[in-house]
Amino acid sequence: MKTLGERFRWRREQLGLTQEDAVKEINRLLQGERKLTRVTISNIENGSQESMKDKVLLAVIQVLKCSPEWLINNRGPVEPSAQAALHSASVKEVRMVPLINWDDAVNAPNIPAASLVGKEMLACPIKCDPLTFALKITGETMLPKFEPGDIIFVNFNFDASDISNGLFVIALSPTKDEASLKQYQLIDNKEFLKSINPDHPSDMRFLKMGDGYKILGVVFYQIKPV
């Protein structure tokens, strides 16, 4: 199943749902905010429509009882893990968060309100802290896991005890003028920030936290474009 539409149809039929059944349940969860039709479902399944609005997607994964990562990217198990299911946000619990740029991230979480005016708002797929912001990946330092165009959701209200080896974080440079995505690593009790792209020179892949870097936020969710 190479396309979102193929996975949508396969899962719908696996659950014994007609297109009309799926439309009815999705619209029930949307509570009138948007109305899908059977034609919309048909367009998704035949590939003529390749994306969905955030809240529609949240309703779809509940009706199809599937993982968003599987439906969108064909990665991981079809059904979400028990832990993920516990934390999945219902449509009523959806929090819309601003899509900020990397210059804004330097000041996070204390971003001036004026800087947030007009920002695109994205629905966070799982329950999140009020001080959550979204960022779009622009560089190649974190390939292959993070590709340009990917969206990451970042909690900027975290406790130091939340930081553990292997987590992906947003780090502030010693000059306090640049924020970047890195992987936190603890090696021989020394803290490092790693660029995971294996093609980068080894002497550029590890930054010492002791050189003045500061962790601003913790990445907890990633979305890849369809």
Protein architecture, described:
This protein is 29% helix and 22% strand. With 226 residues, the chain is of the alpha+beta class. Strands 2-1-3-4-9-5-6-7-8 form a nine-stranded mixed sheet. Strand 6 and strand 7 form a beta hairpin. Helix 2 crosses helix 4. The mean pLDDT is 88. GO terms for molecular function: DNA binding. Pfam families: HTH_31, Peptidase_S24. This is HTH cro/C1-type domain-containing protein.
Count of discrete alpha- or pi-helical segments spanning 4 or more residues: 9
Total number of beta strands: 9
Shape: elongated
Order of helices and strands: HHHHHHEHHEEEEEEHEE
Largest sheet: 9 strands, mixed
What is the residue-mean pLDDT, rounded to a whole number? 88
- Give the DSSP E fraction (strand runs of 2 or more residues): 15-25%
Question: Judging by the overall fold, what is the CATH architecture of the largest domain?
Answer: Ribbon
Please indicate the count of domains. 2
Assigned CATH class of the largest domain: Mainly Beta
Radius of gyration: 19 Å
The CATH superfamily title of the largest domain = Umud Fragment, subunit A
CATH domain fold name of the largest domain: Umud Fragment, subunit A
Strand order of the largest sheet: 2-1-3-4-9-5-6-7-8
